[in-house]
Structures are given as structure tokens and as C-alpha cells.
Amino acid sequence: MIVRTRGVFLSSVGVFLPDPVSAQDAVADGRYDEDVCKASGLTGTHVAHGVPALDMAVVAARRAVQRSGRDVEDIESHVHGGVYHQGPDGSYPPAYILRELGTGPIPSLHIRQGCNGMLAALEVLIGQMTGAAQVETALLTTAQNFDTPLIDRWRGFGDSYILADGAAAAVVSTESGFAEVRSLNSGTLAELEQWHRGDESLLPPQDGTGREVAVAERAALFNEREMSLAETVERIGEFDLSIVQRSLVDAGLNACDIAKVVPINQDGRMIEYAVMGPLGLPMSRSSWDFGRTVGHVGAADLLISLDHLVRTGEVAPGDHVLLLSQGPGWISSAGVVTIKEVPSW
Length: 345
Hints:
The chain has 345 residues and is of the alpha+beta class. 34% of the residues lie in helices and 22% in strands. It has two domains: 2-178, Peroxisomal Thiolase, Chain A, domain 1 (3-Layer(aba) Sandwich); 182-192 and 231-339, 3-Layer(aba) Sandwich (Peroxisomal Thiolase, Chain A, domain 1), CATH 3.40.47.10. The radius of gyration is 19 Å and the shape is globular. The relative contact order is 0.19.
């Protein structure tokens, strides 16, 4: 999908990160491989322990609403993106968030696009704001808690990621904000769907027990049987770059105009090879130096890093920021926002 947009703003963002955990501590405990730790450059993560993802989302949402200077009653629509468990099967996670916030009976959607969920949710809100719905103020939330025996946050998703718990939220407005959304594009490379599914059944679990989530094993099986890792990476790189280029063109910009690139938090070598190198930009113009300390908080990475860049003054009014994320499927999204002002928060 191609979205050229004007008059849609990020009014505020809110972030919640639980207790930090050092990668070196995990190495010492035998949970993380020392060689992988050194090679990836990833230095830590955050662990929520007994705090549910949805409760973290509520905290982040409250912070975002407070920072926006608006009341909860002003929110007209809500989109939530979840990666892993958001509540009991059969429950509706967005309704929990809205009940806790005390909003009115507004529309809500639950986006399940994995780590691509934040940009996917923003794409939906842009449609609501520029289309027939005429929404003026909306809330975007995303949160993850990977603290379960069914997920190995250090090794289960391959060597490029350390999974992290946390939440982020944004108030999106048609009136004003600290950043204007200039463009947003997305696409699905369906030929790589099996890369994250492996050969697992599409039927509900039949043995009545939970099964460990082993995405790295599924990917390895796909690369062994269907497509080599080298070809997979090549196709992903070409596809993702085409999405980025469309968003740059729609925003009327070249890569050299981008002040900061905000990708998902992963191994720095992947970011340099797949993103910064093809764009002709140095790693210093990415958010990786901060993101490597946070861990991969699913779809929340982009808002967490953007919040950091704004608060620390690494971006200023007039700067263009490229946001990009991916998810299983293979899904890819990229968008450009332009910083309009230094927010009071």
C-alpha cells in the first residue's frame, strides 16, 4: 500500500520499559552465547517478570495522552499491535486498554503483524484520519511480554535479536504535533511466508499443551528445504529497500536528506548491511547505538527510539526521520516523519 499524506501528526509518544538486564550477565549465567554477544554488539534487554503486556500498554498510553495535552475523552479511535501473548484466547486486548484508560465507546482494532505492528497501526489510523471516518485524535499502542518458558529471549529468535519486554504508545492527530507523517508504504513478500512458519500444522494444538516458540529453528528448516539463506536475505534486502525508496519518493526526499534512520533493534551488522549501506548512510545516522541497549521490544522499537532521539536532542525541527520495520509474512513497512518542534516533554 502507498500512503502519501499531509496533515497527520504524532502529537506525543509514551514509553514504558521494565527492569534492564545486561547481556553480560546473561553470558555469565549461560543463557547467552559470549561469541554471539560480542559479534552482534547487543548489550542488554528489559524483562517485565510478572507485569502483563497490556498493563504496560496502559502505562505507556497514559503517558502519551498526558504529554499530548489532551483528555482521554478526546480519543476517537484506537489501534493496538501485539506480537506475542496479549491475554487469554478469546479475550479482546484493545478493550482492556480502553477500559483501564476510561475512554468512551470508541472503535478499536487489534493488529497482528508482529514487529511490523506499529507502522501497520499507523497506516490504519492515517486511513481513518484522511478518509471517510474523519477521525481527528487517535491512540496507537503496542506492548510485549516475552517472559515465558515457551520463549528463549536470548536464542529463540536467532543470533540477530535479544527479545525485550516493554510498551509504547502515540497520540496521533490531524491538528498538530511534534512530528508530521510525510509518507508510509508497506508490502508483503508472501513467498517467504513459510520462513517463519516452518512445516508446523495450521490446525489448533492437538496435544493440549503449550509448545516452545522456536522461530530460529523454523527459519533454518525453510533455508534447508526451500530456499538458501543467501537467497532469502537477498530477496528480503531488495524488497525492503523498494519499500524504503517508495516512501522517500512520496516524501519528496533523497536518502541524504534523512537525519536519522530508526530500524527495529537487532544486530548492528544486519542494519548496516541491509539498510544503512544501501542508502549510502553511516551507522552514526541510525538509532542503533541506543537500540542495542534496549533489546527488541517487538513493534514498540520505533516509538521507543523516536522518543529517545527527541528527548536527547539528537533530532531537531526540520529533521527528517526514516522509520522502518519488518514482520513475519514477510511484511515490510517504511515511513518518513519530519520533526516540527521540540515538544515540552
